[in-house]
Write a structure and sequence with these properties.
Distance between the termini: 25 Å
Number of strands: 0
Radius of gyration: 17 Å
Strand content: under 5%
CATH architecture: Up-down Bundle
Helix content: 55-70%
CATH topology: Four Helix Bundle (Hemerythrin (Met), subunit A)
Mean pLDDT: 92
Order of helices and strands: HHHHHH
């Protein structure tokens, strides 16, 4: 895939998937955008920082797919190369971790237990998708390269030092 096509495809997928899961659905579930934000001391600051940091990680991860992998995160237009640079040296699933962090950040912003429950449901769905589809697909597509990466980089809790494999 050419870089422009990879960037355009990734941008469309960014809006279609994380935009809906971490943006539209929490907005519809919380109905808090018109109400005052959390009154719990520190929740608004912590939630805002979490949303901002996770959004930066998400954008970085999408950029790596387009520029390093020459593809998109969408299963219909996968990468040509295994993406293991940047944030992917710390965690194998940075997009999912970022999306869940954005949802949890919003839960803090609005003191919403509904969003916490939604994050738990989303985490179960994402974990199942990774285990049942993504990992077997990556193993068959990239073979030993993916298995080495998988053994050295955790899936969900980032390692502090980047993997240098």
């Amino acid at each position: 895939m050419r870089p422009f096509s990879a960037i355009a495809g990734s941008a469309i997928f960014l809006i279609a998937a994380p935009g809906v899961v971490a943006g539209l659905v929490p907005w519809l579930l919380s109905d808090r955008w018109s109400l005052p934000w959390s009154r719990v001391p520190g929740f608004v600051l912590a939630g805002g920082l979490l949303v901002a940091a996770a959004s930066a990680v998400l954008l970085h991860a999408f950029a790596r797919f387009a520029l390093e992998g020459l593809g998109t995160p969408a299963p219909v237009a996968p990468t040509e190369r295994l993406v293991i640079g940047g944030i992917y040296r710390h965690v194998r699933n940075p997009m999912y971790v970022a999306v869940l962090s954005i949802i949890l950040g919003q839960a803090l912003l609005f003191s919403s237990w509904t969003l916490v429950a939604y994050a738990i449901i989303a985490a179960i769905a994402m974990g199942s998708f990774v285990r049942l589809y993504e990992e077997p697909t990556l193993a068959s597509r990239y073979g030993a390269e993916y298995e080495t990466y998988r053994r050295n980089v955790p899936g969900w809790l980032p390692r502090l030092r980047p993997w240098r494999g």
